[in-house]
Amino acid sequence: MGYQPGKGLGKNLQGISAPVEAAVRKGRGAIGAYGPEVGQRVAGQKREEKLDLDEEEAKEFKDKLSQWRKGDSSIKKKASKVKYVYKTADQVIEEGKGKIGPSIKDYSNLSKVKVIDMTGPEQRVLSGYHAIAGQRKPIENEGIKEELVHFDLPELMHNLDLIVTMCEQDILDKDRQVRSSKDRQIVMEQEVEKLGNVIDSQGKQIESTDAVLQLMEQLCEKPLSLDKAANCIKELKEKHNSDYEIYEMGTMASNLVSPILREKLKLWKPLENPSFMMPEFRRWQRVLENEKSHTLSSAAAKDPFHTLVWGSWTPSIRTAACEWNCRQSGSMIAVLETWRGVVPGWIMNSVVDNLVMPRLEQEVENWNPLTDVVPVHQWLHPWIPFAEKRLIDNVYPVIRRKLSSALTAWHPSDKSALLMLRPWKKVFPQGDMDAFLVTNILPKLQKAMQELVINPHHQQLDQWNWVIEWNELMPLYAMTTLLEKFFFPQWLHVLTMWLSHSPNFDEIKNWYLGWKNLIPTLIKNQPVVKGKLTEALQLMNRAADAVSRNQSLAFLTAPPPPPPPTQREAQELMAEAVRTAGQIPHGFRELLQKKCEERGILFMPIPNRYHEAKQVYRCGKIQVYLDRSVLFICKSNANIWVPSDLQSALDAAM
Asked: Coil, strand, or helix at residue 126?
């Protein structure tokens, strides 16, 4: 099997080469008591080598066994290998800055906390944080591992490490205490500085308060003059403004000065001497009034100067308003205009609303337009800049009502109505003015136009002039409708009759141009009026063509020509024909207008109001429009137009 003497068995000679030999022990001691057991030996090995080996092993074992008795020499040899590391307090503090965890003092409280240490190659479960502190850290840059020796006393080493750690912790605690003390010192220094500033401020406040008390004592002295009071208040406001604002000394000043000013204003007659005591009020305005502007009376009433004016100036104005004659508006307006820059706006408005306007409203109620000689606009219009809105709301409706009653028996030949209404053209709101004229003036102008007799041979223009004079006040659409309904039908009828009786075209031309020049330019440019004038020209052209062709002019008039009457009879017949023609409706719109006039219903076109390109009319309470002789009415509260018969529309308009 390849066996060679003196060598082991196997392919690589790794087996034993000798059988197991028994070793005889000297005594009955335990294994190792008499030295190491002799292992197997290769057969044929020299006996001397075996004996030397046994002696060395026995000696080494005896050295280890007696180490606990005579270990001084070995300890000294081992101590020479220990490397000591020294740390300064600064190094300990620097290393302790990043440490987060309990201190040594807290180990007793955390002794039962389970700690898992995963800093090593294997996970370890420790009984508490103190176990971490008891571990020995490896020495840096130490390549030789320290071998554990029997009897190294690990408990003693743990206690020493714990003492070192506690010393480091004490150093860290002392450092924290020092830093905390420094921070507290800084805070206390800042607090001392702050309290010093407070003491200085309080000292200055005490000095300011003493000065304020001295000035207050001067204000409380009797008698108190206005000059002395003004100087004291001015000094308080300029030098002690904070105390002035905090203690509201302006209000106190107004309460002190108001009785003095009120006593001086007792004998003042504002209507006779409007500017009395104004310089004194201007001085107090500079002293007391705040720089902020006030828009609401509730906020403005807190201003000392406003309180002063309200308590001293207003009573004198109230007394003067009770004695004032409303029809002599100049005196009261002079007072208000004089004091406009001094008296606050809300006080001025209060005087107008509570003292002036009630008197004016009562005077307007007592005004009679038929008997009073002084026109109302002379003493009422000057108040428009002061109370325009209240005049529109409360006074103007009363004036229109009284004028409407006065115009009941008025005739267009009386020019007093035009003179009375002309000043109100730009004063009344445009809608109110137009409605008033259409309701009270237009029906009478229509009646005057119906009474106009168009006689080419002897024309009287009185009625025409009465109507045209109202062109400056009357709405344009109303005047246009007036001529369309009450003038042009008669005019065209007379022209037709004239053309049918061998006319002189030169006279007709002059007659046509004369009437055209009488119509105002603004009305003449209206499409309806242009259409009527064009219609007249067409009649004249047709008549001229017929005469040039020697044709009969019978087509111009329906009835045959009457026998030639006398001049007087011709004039009467012509006037009667014109009057009759003016009373006959020429279409459905004229019929509707005539029915509305009979029932007293207002019928007029609404300016700039159209529906489907058809003019919309105001018919009493409803709105209507005409389309091919069909009447459409607008339902209330909805822009829905529905056809209706004439009777139903008239009933709805009432």
From this structure: strand
